[in-house]
Write a structure and sequence with these properties.
mainly alpha, two-stranded antiparallel ribbon, 7 helices
Length: 165
């Protein structure tokens, strides 16, 4: 690839056509890094935002159910939630104790962090859709979703463990 000499911001390239699959994978990595860095500026990571989103939609869900939904181990989810509790973003509404099912809820601070996370995703969406020709932005997310739905879930992937749990 060569830098744009025309001042339009376009990158010129010689050689065979670029693979759409390759571009989606590269963009996905770059967007994930960007989102994680912006969230990190506020002391949270994507795993924290995910847990807050699940708890927001399903209050009182247990550690093990949250772990299953996120395709992580219960121990990993406990670590995530422990950090969120320490930050005041989540509160336990049941007494702690071995063998007891913990019920958790999002606090006002947790809702603030969840909305902040949504703003990070909105900003990333804006960067992506700004690159789409006029009138095409409304078609982008549905087209990507349709492409996603056409790929089978790979055996052994994090997504397959989420579906079989």
């Amino acid at each position: 690839m060569a830098e744009d000499k025309s001042g339009t911001g376009a990158i010129s390239r010689t050689g065979p056509p670029i693979s759409a699959a390759f571009l989606v994978m590269a963009l996905g990595r770059r967007v994930k890094d960007h989102v994680e860095n912006r969230l990190g500026e506020h002391g949270i990571a994507l795993r924290h935002l995910s847990a807050l989103g699940h708890l927001h939609r399903t209050p009182d869900v247990s550690y093990s159910e949250l772990a299953r939904r996120a395709a992580v181990t219960p121990q990993s989810m406990q670590d995530t939630l422990r950090l969120l509790e320490k930050a005041g973003a989540v509160v336990r509404v049941t007494e702690p104790g071995r063998g007891r099912t913990a019920k958790l809820r999002v606090t006002d601070e947790g809702h603030r962090l969840r909305l902040l996370g949504q703003a990070v995703f909105d900003a990333a969406d804006a960067v992506i859709t700004a690159a789409v020709p006029s009138g095409g932005a409304d078609l982008l997310a549905p087209a990507l979703l349709a492409a996603l739905e056409r790929f089978p879930v790979e055996p052994g992937s994090a997504e397959s463990s989420r579906e079989t749990s």
